[in-house]
Amino acid sequence: MIIIIDYGLGNLGSLLNMLKKLNVEAKISSDITDFEEADKLILPGVGSFDQGAYNLKEFKLIDILNKQVIAKKIPILGICLGMQLFTKQSEEGSLGGLGWFDAITIKFRFDSQLNLKIPHMGWGPINIRKNNLLFDNITKESMFYFVHSYHVICNDHTDILSTTNYGYDFVSSISRDNIIGVQFHPEKSHKYGMKLLENFSRI
Amino acid sequence: MISSLSKTVYMVLTRRIIPCLDLKDGRVVKGTHFLELRDAGDPVELAERYNEQGADEVVFLDITASKEQRGAIIDVIKRAADKLFLPLTVGGGIRTVDDISQILRAGADKVSINTSAVQDPGLISRGAEHFGTQCIVVAMDVRRNYESSPDSTPVLLPDGSTCWYEVVIYGGSKPTRIDAIKWAKEAEDRGAGEILLTSMETDGTKNGFDISITAAISDHVGIPVIASGGVGTFSHFYDGFVNGRADACLAASVFHYGECTVREVKEYLAGRGIPVRL
User: Fold this and answer.
1) ipTM of the complex
2) Which of B248, B240, B244, B241 is nearest to B224 (CA)?
3) Dmax over Cα atoms in chain A, in whole Å?
């Protein structure tokens, strides 16, 4: 059973629908008992960093997340803000993240001559930097849907799972042991998004 | 920190093609050429077809007049979210944060606000604060105004004359004296994540987008601009991206009536060097 973590942010329905379509057992929950029984967790999230960090605390999820993910090594996938919350902090706010990666989250900065819009919104490919089952049958032609103004930078380059170019190469996914984060939205990325979630369900 | 990694530049972001469906009481209003559909009036079935053709997003514009009938759109969004797995924007009749919340909870990813944003610009800020800037699309209908107005921003037209563009509300029926470029900037400052720009000059003409205002607004704001109104053929999309500097192009009838498919448009654009997702 995959638990999609409900901490009061974003649209969780499409994620659940996609997993249902894949015949993967999944449930949206903020109930600690469910977390304890979960094989895997997904931390989704659309919204601001501080709202996310605040809600994790308000929903009293930080201890149980640390227990399941860090102590018990249950696989977790962070999506968009969910991935950013794995870092220590963000330029978007003042509250701390979960700090699972030696990484921080910063805003896109471009030379004004590049004339690039923020948010980075639309479909783009990923440049896979290391092997992970998550990218089984995903190639550099596979496109994913992005919508974000902030991105992660890793102090430890071995955490970088993929990069994507938007003005420069930014980190579009990260991994360390059982923890994976993706900046794009697999639940909005049609067939490749579905493939990626299927891969995650098999990890 | 990233610079020490090998530099692989694939491309800048792909340009988006967005079909728009007008809905009334939960049904597609404009005719459709998809004769083989079981129910040509069902927006979800039509959206799925666009999905298969490679649409990058889909927009549902609810033109239902009465508030009582608005439950229909919620049902449509729920069914669409069950099947589509691509970004869905919903607009029409959204006036409050509660309205936004209802639509997002039903499964939409973004809401598009138009008249209500002009009448209550705080709605943009409140929406962005609650749900994030990425889900607030400010739609604006504009038309040319040749009268002199000291505070307006002049825009150069292809024939060499100048005018300013005025925001019109209530489906293009009520002028506001608001300068379109300034309004776009204000929408951005208040937290809009995207501008959906429709020029009344070109809408329905099939002569192509209004490039002058599309380029002017795209140059004035730092958020993505979706061009809308006037597409009749492939090259109009190309113009919208290259000369209008739009980040996305939206079209309705050209797709509904089968003049071209989303896939054909994208293949054409790819052939002319525009990055698209095929």
Assistant:
1) 0.87
2) B248
3) 52
Pairwise CA distance, residues B46 & B258, whole Å: 12
Q: Provide the number of structural domains found in chain A.
A: 1
CATH topology of domain B14-140+180-271: TIM Barrel (3.20.20)
Q: What confidence tens digit (pLDDT) does each residue in A17-55 have?
A: 899 999 999 999 999 999 999 999 999 988 889 989 999
Instruction: State the CATH number of the domain containing residue A129.
Output: 3.40.50.880
Specify the length of chain A in residues: 203
Q: For chain B, give every domain's residue range.
A: 14-140+180-271
Tokens of B236: 């109009």
Q: pLDDT of A77-106, one tens digit each? A: 999 999 999 999 999 999 999 999 999 999
Exposure string (b/e) for A142-164, b if CB count within 10 Å is 16 or more?
bbbbbbbbbbbebeeeebbbbbb
Interface of A with B in 125-184 (CB under 8 A): 125, 127, 129, 140, 143, 145-149, 153-155, 157, 160, 163-171
